[in-house]
Design a protein that fits this description.
The protein has one domain: Histone deacetylase domain (Arginase, Chain A, 3-Layer(aba) Sandwich), CATH 3.40.800.20. The protein contains 10 helices and 9 strands. The protein has a 7-stranded parallel beta sheet, with helices on both faces. Strands 2-3 form a two-stranded antiparallel ribbon. A hairpin with a 5-residue loop joins β2 and β3. It starts with a strand and ends in a 6-residue tail after the last helix.
Length: 345
């Protein structure tokens, strides 16, 4: 089966040229797809906006009304980091709907897997607050939709953005059906994501945070997947995997503080791809989150798409690697292995 590539041109209407999260981030993506010949092999699907009821399944009404009203008033700022334009509410609905469409197609078997290129990003949007460039939590909306309407019982969400997805964690912190796994810089915006945050109530043990120190190199980043994320996913046995695919852990990113290259992201994507083949029929949905160095962002998206279509041999790392500055994470890994319920023997 094919890999679906979903992008709605409406995402360009949400943009502020003075802000890192702007439409220009993806200006060269179409050309890069054509140069890689991916444009001729990827599947496209009809798109729709998310219904307000679908968004409200994970977000409180007052939060949504605030964003809607600000857009109707001509735009402005929800906080120092998060802007709204007159078109932002419409764009946010389309972004969430695009990830729902990808999820429906993968769960329904129309495609093997899918990558949704959406903006604004979503993983910082909590149940009650839009923040951190994010208006609606696209992955959370689609995950809840899959649980409510598609017969999915267990979902694993992997978040490889350099920032912790506090919003996704918040929404599913007490939910035993959703495993949220995050590798992120710590302490770093938004300040959440300590390894001791493991969920609550019936959801205890279904949050797995790997807080990595600034300067974490590619070797250490990949190691966390080998020794923590992949074993936890295997133990959880999800019906599908969703990826909050942020690429700001790339060494070239101006907002990140890690040293991952395009190759490193492809290695991690390949590990997730292989695991999905073993535990959930290959069902993977990726949704774009951060990434603020346009050449690195586009190169990483192309690399992930090559992995999703089973051709990691075609991954191209034109930006090269950064000289590694080894960071010792052995103690962190040992602590999480000893403490996290999904990793205890």
């Amino acid at each position: 089966m094919a890999t679906a590539f979903l992008r709605d041109d409406i995402i360009e209407l949400h943009s502020d040229p003075t802000h890192p999260e702007q439409a220009e981030r993806l200006a060269s993506l179409t050309q890069a797809l054509e140069a890689s010949e991916l444009a001729s092999v990827l599947r496209t699907l009809p798109l729709r906006p998310a219904r307000e009821s679908e968004i409200a399944a994970v977000h409180r009404g007052q939060m949504l009304e605030r964003t809607q009203m600000l857009a109707l008033d001509g735009g402005g700022r929800l906080d120092a980091d998060t802007y709204v334009t007159p078109d932002s509410w419409q764009v946010a609905c389309h972004a969430a709907g695009t990830v729902i469409t990808a999820t429906e197609a993968v769960v329904g078997g129309t495609v093997a897997n899918a990558f949704a290129v959406v903006r604004p990003p979503g993983h910082h949007a909590t149940a009650t607050r839009a923040m951190g460039f994010c208006l609606v939590n696209n992955v959370a909306v689609a995950a809840q939709y899959a649980l409510d309407h598609l017969g999915v019982k267990r979902i694993a969400i992997i978040d490889w953005d350099v920032h912790h997805g506090n919003g996704t964690q918040d929404i599913f912190y007490g939910n035993a059906q959703v495993l949220y796994c995050s590798t992120h810089n710590y302490p770093f915006y938004p300040g959440t994501g300590h390894w001791q945050e493991m969920g609550q109530g019936v959801g205890y043990g279904t949050t797995l945070n790997v807080p990595l120190p600034p300067g974490t190199d590619e070797t250490a980043f990949v190691r966390t997947y080998d020794e923590l994320i992949i074993p936890a996913l295997r133990r959880f046995e999800p019906d599908m995997i969703m990826v909050s695919a942020g690429y700001d852990a790339h060494w070239a990113d101006p907002l990140g503080a890690m040293l991952v290259s395009t190759t490193g992201y492809a290695l991690v994507a390949t590990k997730v791809y292989n695991l999905a083949a073993d535990v959930c029929g290959g069902r993977i949905v990726c949704a774009l989150e951060g990434g603020y160095h346009p050449p690195a962002l586009v190169e990483c998206i192309i690399a992930t798409l090559q992995v999703l279509r089973g051709r990691p041999d075609l991954v191209h790392n034109g930006l090269g690697v950064q000289a590694e500055q080894p960071v010792d994470i052995a103690r962190l890994i040992a602590t999480i292995q000893h403490q996290h319920p999904l990793l205890q023997s």
